[in-house]
Amino acid sequence: MKHLINLTVNGQKMTVEVESQRTLLELLRDQLSFTGVKEGCGDGECGACTVLMDGQPVRSCLILAVEAQNTEILTIEGLAAGDGLHPLQQSFVKEGAVQCGFCTPGFILAAKALLDRHPHPTDQQIREAMGGHLCRCTGYETIFLAIKAAGSKRR
User: What pTM did the predictor assign?
Assistant: First the structure.
């Protein structure tokens, strides 16, 4: 069965037709071409598919597209303004927290939600917010440093 849903993606209001069983991940990647949203495990365990839904980090592989009705979705493509990187993205680059890059969009969006709630997070808050996000390349230290550095610049 197909449904028409209204949502806002990266500031753009849209109405899209989706099948009942289609996930938000599939809608964003396959139908709307926001390929910065990655499918890692497909089970909500790795965090690669994280987007912000109404400002909260969600695993888009676990959300049905129809559940996004009347929500605001932010993907990594909508984070930067114009040609420049968002300060959080700049911090990830500066700290070397972007090795293969597959997990990076999910980490950055989860970090944005954290910094929006806690502009100067503690190490414990960072660890908790990044819980369930897997990275096979960086060893996490540079990711935590990038988040801490981005928070310290938000004065």
Answer: 0.94
